[in-house]
Amino acid sequence: MIRALKNTAACLLALCALAPVTPALAVVSFPDIENEVMCDTCNVPLNIADSPRADQLRREIKKLIARGETKSQIKSTLSGRYGPAILALPPASGFSLAAYLVPIAVAAGLLLLGIVLVRRWRKSGRNNRADEPPLPDSDNLRLDDELNRFGR
Hints:
Elements: H1 2-18, H2 30-34, H3 52-66, H4 71-82, H5 98-131, H6 137-149
């Protein structure tokens, strides 16, 4: 009985060790957030910004990390203080969702237009060849002579 309990406890411990860490418990590192936040004076991502304001934002983010906030909480705090433009990526909801959907719709439309145009082009090429009158006999003889002269 004790051996079975030990085996069960060992299996549970192994499963806990292999289970993925939930985002709420994940340790947030500064580089994880730095490339997803914009410097509001430089208008570039914080990881490449080089200004006193960028340094101030970096210190603020490090303080939030030290308080134990998660990545989403930090981004929410910064967005609440400085507006949604502080985030490098717009939120995937509301009107900002268009930033993700419009390029996909344009690409799909262009692909569809390309398919339609290629089909029309191929169809018109076949129809033109069928409508062409045959060459006169004199032109056929001259063409054959030219081809024989060049060895074809």
